[in-house]
Description:
Layout: H1 4-7, H2 33-40, H3 53-63, H4 67-77, H5 89-94, H6 98-104, H7 156-163, E1 171-172, H8 174-191, H9 199-216, E2 222-223, H10 224-233, H11 252-266
Antiparallel strand pairs: 1-2
Amino acid sequence: MASPSQTSKESPAPLKRGDYHPPTSTDLRSPCPIVNAFANHGLIPRDGRNVHPADLDTAMQDLGLSLPLRKTLLWGTFFERQDQLPATFKDYLTNPFAYLHWHFGIRPRGQQQQQHTPYIHLDQLSRHGALEHDVSMTRRDSAQQAAGADNHSPQPDLIAQLLNSSTDGSYLTTADFAALRRKRLEQQRRDNPALCFPWILHFVAAGQIAAVQRVFGQGERVPVGYAEAIFREERLPVEEGWRKKGGWGLGVLGVVVQQVRVRWGIGKAMG
């Protein structure tokens, strides 16, 4: 009889929190590469299901975000969806956040555990026009699903376009990101007759660029190697040398200031 070492193969070591592993075919993912990276590293549930505020809060802390910025992002992410706007002014007085719940809410009404703890599944972040928006740098628009694309899967050609938008081939600067956003707007105006990109979603999109710059940038410059890990593999670029910034972490003001710079760089092309 053969010995156990001869008849069995060594089992792979279980993944630890922080270990990177790409998603399986049954895992849920979002339109956001950073959130997907959280799941790929096991900082939130790897299958993308039943993600609680505490999960995301800890993951964002690992990314180097300050407490006020984390709470701001959590507040918006876990809005309960409201399908209709209030009918009367009195209704608005009763619920002053009704518009935000209608516009940005992604969590279906009543989606919470018995302890009244809300949760989301990552694919719910694909709700069009909430946090997800047209003119993504790495995804197609929602209206292009009929053409075989979708608004949450990374598109290799768009990722290559992003990485190649670096002027010097080594770093992505504010000017590079702004030029790419202008180019993507031109592409989607041509390719998507149903394009919807109002000022409030442009504001959200500029903030997303600003956050990437401030979290992963050296100054305002993001190394192309970091960007390739983030956008192509949806992996935190630890192997490439990235470490979260020390101190109190990235704050709301830091993102807003950079967001203004990005918006100014894009200029009048959004008109």
